[in-house]
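Q: Hi! First time doing this. I have a protein sequence and I read that you can turn it into a structure. Is that right? Here it is:
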Amino acid sequence: MNSRVLVFGSINMDLVAKVPHLPIPGETLQGHSFTTVPGGKGANQAVAAARLEVPTAIVGRVGNDQFGQELLQNLQSDRVQTDNVYIDLSTTSGVAIIAVDDNAENHIVVISGANGNVGEEDVERLTPLLPTASILLLQLEIPLSAVQKAAQAAQQAGVKVILDPAPAPTELPSELYSLVDIITPNAVEAEQLVHFAVNTPESAEKAALLLQQRGIKTAIIKLGAKGVFCATVDDSFFIPAFSVKAVDTVAAGDAFNGGLAAALSQGYSLREAVTWGAATGALSATKSGAQSSLPTRQRVEAFLQEHQPPR
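A: Yes, that's right. Below is the predicted 3D structure, encoded as C-alpha coordinates:
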Protein backbone atom coordinates (compact mmCIF):
# COMPACT_ATOMS: atom_id res chain seq x y z
CA MET A 1 0.00 0.00 0.00
CA ASN A 2 1.24 3.50 -0.86
CA SER A 3 1.72 5.61 2.25
CA ARG A 4 2.13 8.96 0.51
CA VAL A 5 -0.28 11.79 1.24
CA LEU A 6 -1.04 14.28 -1.55
CA VAL A 7 -2.49 17.71 -0.86
CA PHE A 8 -4.22 19.82 -3.49
CA GLY A 9 -4.96 23.21 -2.03
CA SER A 10 -4.12 26.66 -0.77
CA ILE A 11 -0.79 28.11 0.31
CA ASN A 12 -1.04 31.41 2.24
CA MET A 13 0.98 33.72 4.40
CA ASP A 14 -0.92 34.36 7.63
CA LEU A 15 -0.71 37.90 9.03
CA VAL A 16 -1.61 37.37 12.69
CA ALA A 17 -2.64 40.07 15.16
CA LYS A 18 -3.04 39.14 18.84
CA VAL A 19 -5.86 41.24 20.34
CA PRO A 20 -7.62 41.46 23.74
CA HIS A 21 -10.99 40.75 22.10
CA LEU A 22 -12.28 40.41 18.55
CA PRO A 23 -13.21 43.88 17.24
CA ILE A 24 -16.78 44.89 16.52
CA PRO A 25 -17.60 46.84 13.33
CA GLY A 26 -16.17 50.36 13.50
CA GLU A 27 -13.95 49.66 16.51
CA THR A 28 -10.24 50.59 16.47
CA LEU A 29 -8.46 48.16 18.76
CA GLN A 30 -4.99 48.26 20.31
CA GLY A 31 -3.45 44.82 19.69
CA HIS A 32 -0.79 42.93 21.65
CA SER A 33 1.51 41.73 18.85
CA PHE A 34 1.88 40.95 15.12
CA THR A 35 3.57 38.04 13.34
CA THR A 36 3.72 36.54 9.85
CA VAL A 37 3.22 32.77 9.84
CA PRO A 38 3.10 30.42 6.84
CA GLY A 39 -0.45 29.07 6.48
CA GLY A 40 -3.23 28.23 4.05
CA LYS A 41 -5.38 25.16 4.65
CA GLY A 42 -3.64 23.10 1.98
CA ALA A 43 -0.13 23.95 3.19
CA ASN A 44 -1.13 23.49 6.85
CA GLN A 45 -2.47 20.02 6.19
CA ALA A 46 0.63 19.10 4.17
CA VAL A 47 2.96 20.21 6.98
CA ALA A 48 0.79 18.45 9.58
CA ALA A 49 1.12 15.13 7.72
CA ALA A 50 4.83 15.63 6.96
CA ARG A 51 5.64 16.33 10.63
CA LEU A 52 4.04 12.98 11.42
CA GLU A 53 6.76 11.45 9.21
CA VAL A 54 4.53 10.50 6.30
CA PRO A 55 5.83 11.25 2.75
CA THR A 56 3.81 14.30 1.64
CA ALA A 57 3.57 16.39 -1.53
CA ILE A 58 1.51 19.49 -2.30
CA VAL A 59 0.13 20.80 -5.61
CA GLY A 60 -0.94 24.45 -5.68
CA ARG A 61 0.21 27.99 -6.48
CA VAL A 62 2.08 30.90 -4.95
CA GLY A 63 2.75 34.37 -6.36
CA ASN A 64 6.06 35.65 -7.71
CA ASP A 65 6.76 37.64 -4.55
CA GLN A 66 8.67 37.51 -1.28
CA PHE A 67 5.84 35.69 0.50
CA GLY A 68 5.84 33.04 -2.26
CA GLN A 69 9.56 32.33 -1.81
CA GLU A 70 9.20 32.16 1.98
CA LEU A 71 6.20 29.83 1.71
CA LEU A 72 8.04 27.40 -0.58
CA GLN A 73 11.15 27.41 1.60
CA ASN A 74 9.06 26.77 4.68
CA LEU A 75 7.27 23.79 3.09
CA GLN A 76 10.59 22.35 1.96
CA SER A 77 12.07 22.77 5.45
CA ASP A 78 9.29 20.47 6.70
CA ARG A 79 10.13 17.95 3.92
CA VAL A 80 6.95 18.65 1.96
CA GLN A 81 7.64 17.96 -1.73
CA THR A 82 6.90 21.19 -3.66
CA ASP A 83 8.01 20.37 -7.24
CA ASN A 84 4.40 20.81 -8.42
CA VAL A 85 3.74 24.17 -6.79
CA TYR A 86 3.40 26.67 -9.66
CA ILE A 87 4.81 30.19 -9.30
CA ASP A 88 2.04 32.37 -10.76
CA LEU A 89 3.49 35.51 -12.35
CA SER A 90 0.07 37.14 -12.77
CA THR A 91 -0.79 37.75 -9.11
CA THR A 92 0.35 37.84 -5.48
CA SER A 93 0.60 34.97 -3.04
CA GLY A 94 -2.50 34.31 -0.97
CA VAL A 95 -2.70 35.91 2.46
CA ALA A 96 -4.93 35.40 5.50
CA ILE A 97 -5.45 38.28 7.92
CA ILE A 98 -6.13 36.77 11.34
CA ALA A 99 -7.13 38.28 14.67
CA VAL A 100 -6.73 36.01 17.71
CA ASP A 101 -8.18 37.11 21.05
CA ASP A 102 -7.24 36.30 24.65
CA ASN A 103 -9.72 33.39 24.68
CA ALA A 104 -8.02 31.79 21.63
CA GLU A 105 -11.00 32.62 19.40
CA ASN A 106 -10.27 33.99 15.94
CA HIS A 107 -11.56 35.95 12.95
CA ILE A 108 -9.98 35.20 9.56
CA VAL A 109 -10.12 37.16 6.29
CA VAL A 110 -8.60 35.32 3.29
CA ILE A 111 -7.28 37.06 0.14
CA SER A 112 -6.97 34.27 -2.43
CA GLY A 113 -4.23 35.66 -4.69
CA ALA A 114 -2.57 32.80 -6.59
CA ASN A 115 -4.85 30.27 -4.89
CA GLY A 116 -7.77 31.74 -6.82
CA ASN A 117 -6.10 30.80 -10.12
CA VAL A 118 -5.77 27.08 -9.35
CA GLY A 119 -7.49 25.20 -12.17
CA GLU A 120 -7.24 22.60 -14.93
CA GLU A 121 -3.46 22.96 -15.40
CA ASP A 122 -2.90 22.24 -11.73
CA VAL A 123 -5.16 19.17 -11.87
CA GLU A 124 -3.02 17.99 -14.80
CA ARG A 125 0.08 18.33 -12.60
CA LEU A 126 -1.67 16.44 -9.80
CA THR A 127 -2.96 13.49 -11.87
CA PRO A 128 0.40 11.75 -12.58
CA LEU A 129 1.19 11.82 -8.84
CA LEU A 130 -2.00 10.01 -7.79
CA PRO A 131 -0.75 6.44 -8.42
CA THR A 132 2.02 7.11 -5.87
CA ALA A 133 -0.45 8.10 -3.12
CA SER A 134 -3.01 6.54 -0.82
CA ILE A 135 -4.84 9.74 0.20
CA LEU A 136 -5.69 13.09 -1.40
CA LEU A 137 -6.49 15.96 0.98
CA LEU A 138 -8.76 18.71 -0.38
CA GLN A 139 -10.11 21.98 1.06
CA LEU A 140 -12.13 24.89 -0.36
CA GLU A 141 -9.67 27.82 -0.40
CA ILE A 142 -9.15 27.15 -4.13
CA PRO A 143 -11.87 27.21 -6.84
CA LEU A 144 -14.55 24.57 -6.34
CA SER A 145 -14.35 23.44 -9.98
CA ALA A 146 -10.68 22.52 -9.49
CA VAL A 147 -11.48 20.67 -6.24
CA GLN A 148 -14.15 18.64 -8.03
CA LYS A 149 -11.84 17.74 -10.94
CA ALA A 150 -9.10 16.70 -8.51
CA ALA A 151 -11.56 14.50 -6.58
CA GLN A 152 -12.69 12.92 -9.85
CA ALA A 153 -9.10 12.17 -10.87
CA ALA A 154 -8.38 10.67 -7.44
CA GLN A 155 -11.46 8.46 -7.55
CA GLN A 156 -10.45 7.17 -10.99
CA ALA A 157 -6.95 6.40 -9.61
CA GLY A 158 -8.37 4.56 -6.58
CA VAL A 159 -7.05 7.15 -4.12
CA LYS A 160 -9.05 7.94 -0.96
CA VAL A 161 -10.38 11.53 -0.98
CA ILE A 162 -10.67 13.51 2.27
CA LEU A 163 -12.48 16.85 1.93
CA ASP A 164 -12.30 19.57 4.55
CA PRO A 165 -15.25 21.75 3.42
CA ALA A 166 -13.73 24.99 4.64
CA PRO A 167 -14.54 27.75 4.14
CA ALA A 168 -17.97 26.12 3.79
CA PRO A 169 -20.37 27.17 1.06
CA THR A 170 -24.11 26.94 1.68
CA GLU A 171 -24.23 24.23 -0.97
CA LEU A 172 -21.69 21.80 -2.41
CA PRO A 173 -22.26 20.47 -5.94
CA SER A 174 -24.24 17.24 -5.62
CA GLU A 175 -21.71 15.41 -7.84
CA LEU A 176 -18.88 16.24 -5.41
CA TYR A 177 -20.44 14.30 -2.53
CA SER A 178 -20.17 10.99 -4.39
CA LEU A 179 -16.47 11.66 -5.13
CA VAL A 180 -15.55 12.13 -1.45
CA ASP A 181 -14.67 9.22 0.83
CA ILE A 182 -14.41 11.24 4.06
CA ILE A 183 -15.75 14.74 4.80
CA THR A 184 -14.50 16.57 7.91
CA PRO A 185 -16.50 19.74 8.67
CA ASN A 186 -16.32 21.48 12.01
CA ALA A 187 -19.59 22.41 13.74
CA VAL A 188 -19.98 25.73 11.89
CA GLU A 189 -19.21 24.20 8.49
CA ALA A 190 -21.55 21.28 9.13
CA GLU A 191 -24.33 23.73 10.03
CA GLN A 192 -23.75 25.66 6.79
CA LEU A 193 -24.00 22.44 4.78
CA VAL A 194 -27.07 20.93 6.47
CA HIS A 195 -28.88 24.15 7.50
CA PHE A 196 -29.54 23.30 11.14
CA ALA A 197 -27.52 23.81 14.34
CA VAL A 198 -24.76 21.24 14.88
CA ASN A 199 -23.42 21.56 18.42
CA THR A 200 -23.98 18.22 20.18
CA PRO A 201 -23.14 14.59 19.40
CA GLU A 202 -26.85 14.03 18.67
CA SER A 203 -27.10 16.87 16.14
CA ALA A 204 -23.74 15.79 14.66
CA GLU A 205 -25.18 12.30 14.12
CA LYS A 206 -28.20 13.80 12.37
CA ALA A 207 -25.93 15.97 10.18
CA ALA A 208 -23.69 13.01 9.34
CA LEU A 209 -26.71 10.95 8.26
CA LEU A 210 -27.86 13.75 5.95
CA LEU A 211 -24.37 14.08 4.43
CA GLN A 212 -24.31 10.32 3.84
CA GLN A 213 -27.68 10.51 2.11
CA ARG A 214 -26.05 12.97 -0.32
CA GLY A 215 -23.38 10.40 -1.22
CA ILE A 216 -20.61 10.80 1.39
CA LYS A 217 -19.22 7.47 2.60
CA THR A 218 -17.81 8.65 5.94
CA ALA A 219 -18.72 11.87 7.78
CA ILE A 220 -16.46 13.11 10.59
CA ILE A 221 -17.83 16.14 12.41
CA LYS A 222 -15.41 18.09 14.61
CA LEU A 223 -17.17 19.62 17.62
CA GLY A 224 -14.11 21.40 19.04
CA ALA A 225 -13.83 21.04 22.81
CA LYS A 226 -16.79 18.63 22.82
CA GLY A 227 -15.11 15.96 20.69
CA VAL A 228 -15.50 14.27 17.31
CA PHE A 229 -18.43 12.32 15.87
CA CYS A 230 -17.76 9.81 13.09
CA ALA A 231 -20.29 7.90 10.98
CA THR A 232 -19.48 5.30 8.32
CA VAL A 233 -21.82 3.20 6.23
CA ASP A 234 -21.71 0.42 8.87
CA ASP A 235 -20.87 2.12 12.15
CA SER A 236 -20.74 5.34 14.15
CA PHE A 237 -18.77 6.44 17.20
CA PHE A 238 -18.00 9.52 19.30
CA ILE A 239 -14.58 10.42 20.69
CA PRO A 240 -14.59 13.03 23.49
CA ALA A 241 -12.04 15.82 23.13
CA PHE A 242 -8.64 15.61 24.77
CA SER A 243 -8.39 18.13 27.60
CA VAL A 244 -5.72 20.77 26.84
CA LYS A 245 -5.24 24.48 27.55
CA ALA A 246 -6.03 26.14 24.22
CA VAL A 247 -3.87 29.09 23.24
CA ASP A 248 -4.77 29.47 19.55
CA THR A 249 -7.19 27.30 17.54
CA VAL A 250 -6.21 28.70 14.10
CA ALA A 251 -4.87 25.45 12.57
CA ALA A 252 -6.48 22.87 14.85
CA GLY A 253 -8.84 21.66 12.11
CA ASP A 254 -5.98 21.38 9.62
CA ALA A 255 -3.90 19.53 12.21
CA PHE A 256 -6.80 17.10 12.67
CA ASN A 257 -6.95 16.40 8.94
CA GLY A 258 -3.20 15.95 8.67
CA GLY A 259 -3.22 13.54 11.60
CA LEU A 260 -6.20 11.63 10.22
CA ALA A 261 -4.61 11.30 6.76
CA ALA A 262 -1.19 10.35 8.14
CA ALA A 263 -2.66 7.60 10.30
CA LEU A 264 -4.91 6.21 7.56
CA SER A 265 -2.00 6.19 5.09
CA GLN A 266 -0.11 3.94 7.50
CA GLY A 267 -2.95 1.44 7.76
CA TYR A 268 -4.49 2.51 11.08
CA SER A 269 -8.17 1.75 11.63
CA LEU A 270 -10.61 4.63 11.22
CA ARG A 271 -11.15 4.91 14.99
CA GLU A 272 -7.38 4.97 15.58
CA ALA A 273 -6.96 7.54 12.80
CA VAL A 274 -9.70 9.80 14.23
CA THR A 275 -7.98 9.56 17.62
CA TRP A 276 -4.67 10.55 15.99
CA GLY A 277 -6.45 13.46 14.31
CA ALA A 278 -7.99 14.56 17.61
CA ALA A 279 -4.63 14.38 19.41
CA THR A 280 -2.84 16.29 16.63
CA GLY A 281 -5.55 18.97 16.66
CA ALA A 282 -5.50 19.25 20.47
CA LEU A 283 -1.72 19.69 20.53
CA SER A 284 -1.92 22.30 17.77
CA ALA A 285 -4.32 24.38 19.88
CA THR A 286 -1.74 24.60 22.68
CA LYS A 287 0.68 26.67 20.53
CA SER A 288 0.32 29.90 18.58
CA GLY A 289 0.18 30.20 14.81
CA ALA A 290 -0.77 27.90 11.96
CA GLN A 291 2.15 25.75 10.82
CA SER A 292 4.24 26.85 13.82
CA SER A 293 1.74 25.04 16.07
CA LEU A 294 1.75 21.67 14.28
CA PRO A 295 3.22 18.84 16.38
CA THR A 296 5.86 16.24 15.50
CA ARG A 297 5.17 12.51 15.46
CA GLN A 298 7.16 12.05 18.68
CA ARG A 299 5.02 14.66 20.42
CA VAL A 300 1.76 13.05 19.29
CA GLU A 301 2.92 9.57 20.29
CA ALA A 302 4.02 10.81 23.73
CA PHE A 303 0.71 12.65 24.17
CA LEU A 304 -1.29 9.53 23.26
CA GLN A 305 0.72 7.45 25.73
CA GLU A 306 0.01 9.97 28.50
CA HIS A 307 -3.65 10.39 27.59
CA GLN A 308 -5.34 7.10 26.98
CA PRO A 309 -7.60 7.60 23.94
CA PRO A 310 -10.92 8.81 25.35
CA ARG A 311 -13.84 6.40 25.14
